[in-house]
Amino acid sequence: MDAPTATPSFDRHAVVNRFGVAVPLADPDGEREQQLLDDLIELQARESLIEARRARTIEQLRALTERRVAATAAARSASSGADSADARRGATWTPRFTARRELATELATLLRESERTAETRIAHAELLGAQLSETADALERAVITPRHAQLIIDRACDLPAETRAEFERLALSAAERMGVGPFARRLRRLRELMHPEPIEQRAETASAERWVAVEPAADAMAYLTAYLPAVDAVAIHDRVNDIARHLAGDGETRTAAQRRADVFTALLVAGEVPGGSCDAFGCDGAASSPGTSGDSGRVPLGHGIRPRVSITVPALTLLARAGVDVPADARAAHLEGYGPIDDETAARWAARAPSFRRILTDPHTGAVLSVGRERYAVPADLAAALRVRDDTCRFPGCVRAASVCELDHTVDWAHGGETSADNLAHLCRSHHQLKHRTSWSVKHLGAGRLEWTSPRTRVHVTEPPGFDDPPRVRSTARKATEARPVRSRERRDDGSPPPRPRRQFGPRAPLPDEPPF
């Protein structure tokens, strides 16, 4: 008698092929993932709608409050007249000021938040209603997120009213395709290029506001923050990074972040970095005097390490300083890891540079013209050109500097990919591994644009920082050699000074730079 055969289990999501293997008809888990992703998109859209309606409601409250307070003040003045005390108080407590203070305190107590936060809500709601109506509309339609809208408001506040409409148009175009991190960098770049006051004058004024401050933190720690010219800040950061890299080696247990913090402290407190020498770590100590740390003839670590500041200075910029007429929309100098800087600073640092690397670029688009090399290893000139082009990691939303990223062949060399500008892009270590170990895919669209496709087939396009820059405002009001007194910061419409540059405390890198990620 034959043994009874087992009854095969029935799976309504699969069929058995001719090899006896169950082949899925559908992916219930995948469908559920897609549904959850769609739910997140809907929730974010609701959040945008709520923020837009909140701003509109606050703006309506402001208008009604000002109207009521103004009517009350007019009636009081008509019925009793204004004595000298009222006149003195009226210099500050105008109907507009009174209404805003009244509404701010009302909102602060109602929403259980600080009065400063309430005042900011009122000011931003008024700006959205009066001058950034397209941003308010895009927020209500969930085309942009609340964070994108807040970034537009913050940067628009730094621009004169007459330039805000064009700024808003360009900002909204970028907001629809950029994550928050790259979008913030894009807006800073737009603001620098579109501001009607030449960047040379703004840099001089802002430099007069430089400061250093300590902010207490928990657990016997504190933040030391400096507001400095961008080139100086980048130079300091680069020197600290270089010294910290030299300290890495066998037996070193500190993380890269800890080494950087220790180097920073040692340089400022003691003037040198203990625990090594330039002889031991291969620094260039020839230009330095022998060390005095008890090891005769050895140079303390850090004395031979100079900061590397990478500034892209278009040839047209240098020609303009030499008196040659150049197009008014010639591209601005670019500080790697920051963005546009003034021509005077760029030319001054270029004059101090011990050497130059020539990178041929289109003077109007900034695109690399030619670097063709037939080999896997990326030539130094091509790598430098791509670092200028990319500026950051090119994965959507990542803003890690290109200088600490890796160059990736978009189409693998083993699969026929070329070592060319159209097949290379910077990726941080984490996203480089992500590209090769997950279902994310990427392709070049030309002009440095990358199209990323997520495992769930959602498409994201990233662009180089200067992909669609507007024409810059060039300084024609004065020559570089003319002296100009430093002006105080411009005051607001209500006469109050603008706030000091906001300090941002805490680690800013979005991802760790050492494994595990």
From TrEMBL:
Cited SMART domains: HNHc (SM00507)
InterPro entries: DUF222, HNH, HNH_nuc
Signal peptide (from-to): none
Positions of the HNH nuclease domain: 381-433
Keyword Transport among UniProt keywords: no
Keyword Nuclease: yes
Annotated Basic and acidic residues bias: 479-495
Domain of life: Bacteria
GO molecular function: endonuclease activity; nucleic acid binding; zinc ion binding
Start and end residues of each stretch annotated as Disordered: 456-517
Protein keywords: Endonuclease, Hydrolase, Nuclease
Similarity-based family: Belongs to the Rv1128c/1148c/1588c/1702c/1945/3466 family.
Protein name, entry field: HNH endonuclease
